Amino acid sequence: MEYNFREIEKKWQKRWVENKTYQVTEDETKKKFYVLNMFPYPSGAGLHVGHPLGYIASDIYARYKRLQGFNVLNPMGYDAYGLPAEQYAIQTGQHPAITTVNNINRYREQLDKIGFSFDWNREIRTCEPEYYHWTQWAFLKMFNSYYCNDKKQARPIQELIETFSQTGTEGMNVACGEELSFTAAEWNAKSEKEQQEILMNYRIAYLGETMVNWCPQLGTVLANDEVIDGVSERGGFPVIQKKMRQWCLRVSAYAQRLLDGLDTIDWTESLKETQKNWIGRSEGAEIQFKVKDSDLEFTIFTTRADTMFGVTFMVLAPESELVQQLTTDTQKDEVNAYLERTKKRTERERIADRSVTGVFSGSYAINPFTGETVPIWISDYVLAGYGTGAIMAVPAHDSRDYAFAKHFGLEIRPLVEGCDVSEESFDAKEGIVCNSPREGVTPYCDLSLNGLTIKEAIAATKKYVKEHNLGRVKVNFRLRDAIFSRQRYWGEPFPVYYKDNMPYMIDESALPLELPEVAKFLPTETGEPPLGHATKWAWDTVNKCVVENEKIDNTTVFPLELNTMPGFAGSSAYYLRYMDPHNNQALVDKKVDEYWHNVDLYVGGTEHATGHLIYSRFWNKFLYDLGISVAEEPFQKLVNQGMIQGRSNFVYRIKDTNTFVSLNLKDQYDTTPLHVDVNIVSNDVLDLEAFKAWRPEYATAEFILEDGKYICGWAVEKMSKSMFNVVNPDMIVDKYGADTLRMYEMFLGPVEQSKPWDTNGIDGVHRFIKKFWSLFYDRNDNYLVTDEPAIKEELKSLHKLIKKVTGDIEQFSYNTSISAFMICVNELFGMKCSKKEILNQFIIVLAPFAPHVCEELWETLDNAGSVCDAKWPVCNEEYLVEDTVNYTISFNGKARFNMEFPADAASDAIQTAVLADERSEKWIEGKTIAKVIVVPKKIVNIVVK
């Protein structure tokens, strides 16, 4: 019986659906294991071979845990909102919903062909009202919550309102935009609108003025990771920095908990470090600086208040409100020109770029420690969102301040004894303080740090600042609040209406608020987002429903929010929804959540380290505060799969001709390398007729061959359509089968490493499966399997495999598992072993990697049910005990020959046998044996003189 993978794979994919093999429900008699892949966005191009890498890796682990007896949840769905579908709608007029459904259908077709164990009964799509109902619900809860720093949790905003009405802001310790101070009487005297404006300073979801990446051509705000080199990733349109009123989430309130939570989860140290740096915790002091000849003063945050004596200039972020206040008339034109230039750079680009730019404001500040006047500059190396958007510059001890001072000829004053700052700044973490204050200068304050160690100086300065009311000691975080508005159509609508220009939430019972139909997907002529085109987009507060805009009376009917939520909204709590996707009463039932708890294994790319993985952790912690999520951390273990890069092929055209010369002959000609479609190249050999048919200009191509073949060049590059190196998994499945694709993707290298796709090695994996098949059927279709008992060598080969694969799967070292499968099959083939006792166990171990062929052979062996429900075999170490040991025989440390001995042979017996061996005579003759060293189970070394 021939290995017909096409028939086998279709048969079992159909059988799995019919038997609901992968549908799972809560089962208190079993331990649970929750496997999750990062939400895919269904693009129009479909999957290429790089996309399934993580899915295959997680699927192997899910199948393995099921075989170990776990109740495994392995769901899949789609992050279905996104800019690409909307851009396509703008270009073609096709509704994004149609594009998205078509793309999802294409994805699903491709995913089904690869044989994943997904429970499709739990499929979710972020663009469906049944799903975004709960995204809107969470936003509504955030709007109606504030963060209490003392209790370290989100609390109902009503508590805050009651506190304000009774005691005002006295004794409050809550997360806020700015520190406000008012009495209960002052609060109670305010109008409803005034109170709502104050509450916006405390809500977890709030409207705020913030700098954003604005793309005029796309008509929307973009996240930092959607901007590359000052242009939008989608379309390559210019992006500028712009201050806008946006919905924001107070992620910064959770900064310390996000930091602390990293100690409780099993993520790679490099990813944890990335998040720690992004959160950016620093302890320091906020200090007040007065402006010379002005009543103005401003606050700076510094982690090193001890360096105050070395401040020689101040720097403001270009976005700081102080810029306009401190820019003098004589400097106004120069400053405005500089601000215009910096608008085109995102914060991420400014952090990465080390070039020096800046402009003098014309104003000076007074150093509160020295009384000196120091110039105030403006530069884009200072960010508005970190600290106060203003810094004190100590160029002797900070590399960016040093570069700035050198560039603009500003003073550099060292503060550590013996440090050399002639060429670069000095990292002042250790040493003895000097110039604080400088000798010969009349002290301006009664603090002297001279002679103290750095550590002592930091403590003394913090104490002085606090005691003399120069500022306050503070912990600061780099983590910014998340901008949560997008000026586009294809996204979750906000459950928000506006009364007296202030936002109010629609009633929870009226959710979901569904996305309306619009005539155009572009912004309106007056610059409003696309929802401005909707004619039925007003909220009737009496009937709690959407009505026509013409009914707006601002008494009972009000306009609805025109922005939509960003891409990360739908993916921030999806893991909870997978637990209970058909629940219409709650995001997730409490008992269901208590069973599944959180994700045991999360698989996805490292590119989400500072986006999705921050936002989803924040979102989950908020739901934990509400008692909705039972686990504070959503993803217990995280594995980052690497990227499969493209392996491009090249042909070489002789200049000014349509003649192409083979790789190893190209140096004889003046040629131009051109990318060629990798799908018409096999083992770097070009299919000449397919090449001629590929593009019209190549129809008359001529070739200079080597040994009758055209050999292509190659290079490892990003897999992309422009380089013609995209490999469609459908083609691999059609030619070799899904099991071969699954195993080959794992065979390419460690899961977490990036590696090039190289079809040249896939034949070997396909041959392995066919060889495995041949242990069951010979070439004449004779069934070979017998019920004979296995012999020791066969059991040893099998249990070596069980031990190796079990350990490898736990470590995600799948590539070495596949090598072990090949070795074991070769050993069994060599022993002509087709015994059911051995093959049954082999099938189970191979099943997570190649499920289709294993299901077929499992049935062939007359086993009941699916191989998915078999029991993972346990390695019996007794079968691995060696009867004999091979010893290396050395003379004066040099290996000369080998000898076999029983594993339990005594050292004396080994020594006697070695010395009696005729091969030893050559090395002993004429010499004296000084000693014989026997290292058990390894080596015998005879020392002769």
Overview of this structure, please?
The chain is built from 28 helices and 36 strands. With 945 residues, the chain is an alpha+beta fold. Strands 10, 11, 12, 13, 14, 15 and 16 form a seven-stranded mixed sheet that branches. Strands 25, 26, 27, 30, 31 and 32 form a six-stranded mixed sheet that branches. Helix 1 packs across helix 26 and helix 21 packs across helix 22. The longest helix is centred in the last third of the chain and has 20 residues. It is globular and about 100 Å long.
In summary, what is this structure?
The protein has 945 residues and is of the alpha+beta class. The chain contains 28 helices and 36 strands.
Low-confidence stretches: none
From the N-terminal CA to the C-terminal CA, the straight-line distance is: 67 Å
Quote the beta fraction: 15-25%
Outline, from the CA principal axes? globular
Question: Which value, in Å, is the CA radius of gyration?
Answer: 35 Å
* Count of strand segments: 36
Instruction: Specify the structural class.
Output: alpha+beta
Helix content: 25-40%
Main sheet: strands, sense, barrel: 7 strands, mixed
How are the SSEs ordered, and which strands pair?
Layout: H1 5-18, E1 32-37, H2 52-67, E2 71-73, H3 83-92, H4 96-114, H5 129-143, E3 145-148, E4 153-156, H6 157-167, H7 184-189, H8 192-199, E5 205-215, E6 220-222, E7 227-228, E8 231-232, E9 240-249, H9 255-261, H10 269-279, E10 281-291, E11 297-302, E12 313-316, H11 322-326, H12 332-342, H13 347-352, E13 359-366, E14 373-378, E15 390-393, H14 399-408, H15 454-467, E16 471-477, E17 482-483, E18 496-499, E19 502-505, E20 538-540, E21 545-547, E22 557-559, H16 574-579, H17 590-596, E23 601-604, H18 612-625, E24 638-640, E25 644-654, E26 659-661, E27 671-676, E28 681-682, E29 685-686, H19 688-694, E30 702-704, E31 713-717, H20 729-736, H21 738-747, E32 755-756, H22 762-773, H23 792-811, H24 814-830, H25 836-846, H26 851-860, E33 884-891, E34 894-902, H27 907-916, H28 918-924, E35 929-935, E36 939-944
Parallel strand pairs: 1-2, 1-23, 12-14, 23-24, 25-32, 26-30, 33-36
Antiparallel strand pairs: 3-4, 5-6, 5-9, 7-8, 9-17, 10-11, 10-13, 10-16, 12-15, 13-14, 18-19, 20-21, 20-22, 25-26, 25-27, 25-31, 28-29, 33-34, 35-36
